[in-house]
Amino acid sequence: MAFRSSLAIAVRALGRNRLQTSLTIVGMTIGVAAVLAMIAIGTGAEAAIGDQIRAAGMNLIVVTAGNYKVKSTDDFGGGAVEPSAALGLPDPLWRRALSLVEPTLVAHPEDDPMEKHDHPTARQRLGDSEAGLGSAATLTSADADAIRRIRGVQYVAEGLHQNVHVAADAKRWFTRLHGTDLQLPLIRRAWTFPNGRFFSAREQSRAEQVVVLGAVAAERLFGGENPAGRSVSIWKQPFRVVGVVTTASWMVAPAPGDDQFDAVYIPFTTVHRLLNLTKLNDITITAASTGEVSRIMNDVTMLLRARHRITDETPDDFTVTTQARQALAKGGLRPDVARAVVGNVSGLDKVTLEQLGKTLDRATRTMTALLAGIAAVSLLVGGIGIMNIMLLSVTERTREIGVRRAVGARARDVRSQFVLEAMTLSVTGGVAGVCLGLVVASGLSRYLHWSTTISPGAVVVSVSVAAAVGIFFGWYPARQAARLDPIQSLRYE
Amino acid sequence: MAAVPLIAVRDLEKTYAMDGPPVHALCGVTLAIQRGEFVAVVGPSGSGKSTLMHILGCLDRPTSGTYHLDARDVSRLSDDDLSAIRNRQIGFVFQGFNLLARTSALENVELPLLYAHRNRIAPAERRVRALRALGAVGLADRASHFPNQLSGGQQQRVAIARALLNDPAILLADEPTGNLDSRTSIEIMEIFQRLNAQRGITIVLITHEPQVAAYASRIIQIIDGRLVTDLANASHRAAAAELAGGGHG
Asked: Which residue out of B100, B125, B164, B171 would a mutagenesis test of the A interface target, given it has the greatest number of A Cβ atoms within 10 Å?
């Protein structure tokens, strides 16, 4: 009750000087809106990165032809067959616990480069899938179809990869060719098609000569023109361009040399037909739920071992991974971005998604703090504006203070009135600032395609900070007002 | 008259310690005012009459001496207690009216009720009481006017309504007619006399004008911080009669 009547007094006093009041509120509004918008951008970036990591790999399983568990980059060609995978047995608990701490590193006799082997190494046995198409020809599109029937599998995309020359009229561009399935855009969640579309089910089933250009390839071959409907040649065959793919994520800018957008996509059926192939380099799978990734990996392993008629003693002739390397190379994060972030970690292959996520989180949190810190300066300026107006108000209203004291206001009534006036200014400004901040954030998302996230927590914190600023900057003027001598203030001219 | 006076001051001294030598504004004033009296305190400027009023009004505390208001020693009370006394027992009327600008007459009159901490009053009740007080000074139809839309006399009547709102025992008026013309001054004095006669409100009127003091039933003269004369004024002027007669001599 006491608070309510004090508030009524404060609001009434503020209402008497509307211009001053509204200008001060505007200052506060801008401060709070800036802070909220900056936090929205920062947390939006954080969420976008988290989303990308999820999109990139948390539910992503890649089955590669051949069997390599690459230990480190400097031992690239080594090849360590993981015994438990070879035996098709689920990991014992202790190893799962260990794998949470670091990526799987299991010693194998073949790991030792000094060791003389009297049998072919895994590499020699299975061929090197990294070395080129078909050298580890163990996966087929029938395998992919079988995987599609596993419970919990969301999308499956066949993969065939080659480096090719793409020519459009006089221009040629050496790039990466991906023969894939029409479900790939569903797996690459950040993809967007500024021109045209991905190839259709009909085009895939008829193995038509259609191609989707990555944004970089499209730029190199057609400049600013719309390539959709134009013709390019690959392997001296004409292909019709049906679309251009780029990323909707502001985190990643397509650049020459990246695997996703300096690339062209054609139906894997077309690759099979033209090159007379039946095998695949890899199969990309997504789990409907990230919690089922391990189970699905296991099911895929069992299924493929059965299909490839691999006996218990023989290792897998394929590799099932969810490793960061796969995610980095194919999952939507540009390797150079990821490498820059995790630059202090040697051996990118060992970096798990969890580690990567944490590092990126740290980086974005720093950015959020920086942005919010800059915005806080405007909040501070808003607070000083309030203090200024309150000090002015105390001087201007000295007589009013005297009158209030004469009719029975205690020193603390005067103080609380001025503090409440300052708080009313700051909270009103704060609430208006939240509204403005929401508008700014949604504007940034809509027109600049920046990811922004505003949590209820951020709103509550913004308004509380505004109120705190009001109390902090209103306190000194209010104390000055309360300290005025009633007699002196009544005489004040 | 009651045995215990409403106001009883004894050996009241007030010394201001300025930069130079101390200034003795009051030098031992002893005075008793009974409930229902209409007292004028007269004296030249600088005589200490304003200081006396500030102490009587609980806006200030004496350097030494005692002040009993309604048998309670208030000379050593805290600021909060003095504020509460000002709120409930004392009504002020000033020379410069001291109304809040850009605030309606009604809201100005309500002001003391906002600080009636011990006896909270609902907003609707506040409004009713403020309107009633405005009616008592003949300004019920000006409730929503702002001070700058009112004449000086009307403003002073709003200030009187404000002073009366908490039904104080004492009305302290500091040169209430100083900014008013003579006819308006008589109107104000008519209100004072009526309040004193009909509601028994004790009025202490500070003035330097003898003809204004002449409306009071007791005149106290202060010079150089000392009480010089204290005389009953049985043949005081009657403002109502003067207004009815169309002027005064």
From this structure: B100
Tell me the sheet residues that pair with A180.
Answer: A159, A267
Kind and range of the H or E run holding B41: strand B38-42
The reported pLDDT for the residue numbered A431 is 92
DSSP A456-478: HHHHHHHHHHHHHHHHHHHHHHH
Proportion of chain B above pLDDT 70, given as a percent: 97
Rounded-to-integer distance, Cα B165 and Cα A275, Å: 102
Nearest to B114 among A9, A17, A412 (CB): A9
| Closest CB to A408 among B100, B101, B112 | B112
Q: What is the pLDDT of residue A367?
A: 80
Mutant choice from A3, A398, A407 vs B, greatest count of B C-beta within 10 A: A407
Q: What is the pLDDT of residue A465?
A: 85
What angle do helix axes A411-448 and A456-483 make, rounded to 10 degrees?
150
Interchain proximity A487–B60, CB inside 8 Å: yes
pLDDT of residue B3: 66
pLDDT in tens, B111-128: 999 888 777 788 899 899
CA-to-CA distance for A304 and A316, rounded, in angstroms?
9
Low-confidence ranges of chain A (pLDDT < 70): 1-2, 5, 49-58, 67-137, 249-252, 289-291, 323-359, 361
| Three-state SS annotation for A364-377 | HHHHHHHHHHHHHH
What are the two backbone dihedrals, phi and then psi, of residue A410, each rounded to the nearest 5 degrees? -80, 165
Q: What is the distance between the alpha carbons of residues A316 and B201, in angstroms, rounded to a whole number? A: 108
Q: Which amino acid is at A322?
A: T
List, as one string, the DSSP characters of A76-144.
TTT----HHHHHTPPPPHHHHHHHHHS------GGG-TT---SS--HHHHH--TTT-TTTT--EEHHHH
Which one of A410, A413, A485 would you mutate to disrupt binding with B, by most B Cβ within 10 Å of its Cβ?
Answer: A410
CA distance A465 to A461: 6
A394 vs chain B: nearest CA distance in angstroms?
Answer: 14
Q: Across the interface, which of B98, B99, B115 has its CB nearest the CB of A413?
A: B115
Q: What is the torsional sign of CA A126, A128, A129, A134?
A: negative
Token digits for A430?
A: 């704060």
Q: Which helix (H) or strand (E) holds A434?
A: helix A411-448
* Residues facing residue A61 across a β-bridge: A285
**Six-digit token string for B194:** 């009526």
Longest dimension (CA), chain A: 109
Contact call for A400 and B86, based on CB within 8 A: no
CB interface of A with B, residues 321-350, below 8 Å: none
C-alpha pair distances (Å), B23 with each of A5, B51, B224: 41, 12, 11
Minimal C-alpha gap between B84 and chain A (Å): 6
Closest Cα partner for A298 from A48, A89, A41, A38?
A: A89
Test A405 with B83 for CB contact under 8 angstroms: yes
Burial grade of B66 (CB within 10 A; 0-12, 13-18, 19 or more) = middle
A312 neighbors A88 (Cβ within 8 angstroms): yes
Task: Report chain A residues whose CB lies below 8 A from the CB of B111.
Answer: 403-404, 407
Would you state the pLDDT for residue B198? 93
**Quick one: CA torsion of A98, A104, A107, A109, rounded to 10 degrees?**
150
Q: Count A/B contacts: CB-CB distance under 8 Å.
A: 71
pTM of structure: 0.62
Higher per-residue pLDDT: B214 or A116: B214
- Provide the CA B63 distance to its chain's centre, in angstroms: 22
Task: Evaluate whether B33 touches B7 at the Cβ level (below 8 Å).
Answer: yes
- According to the model, what pLDDT value does residue A376 have? 82
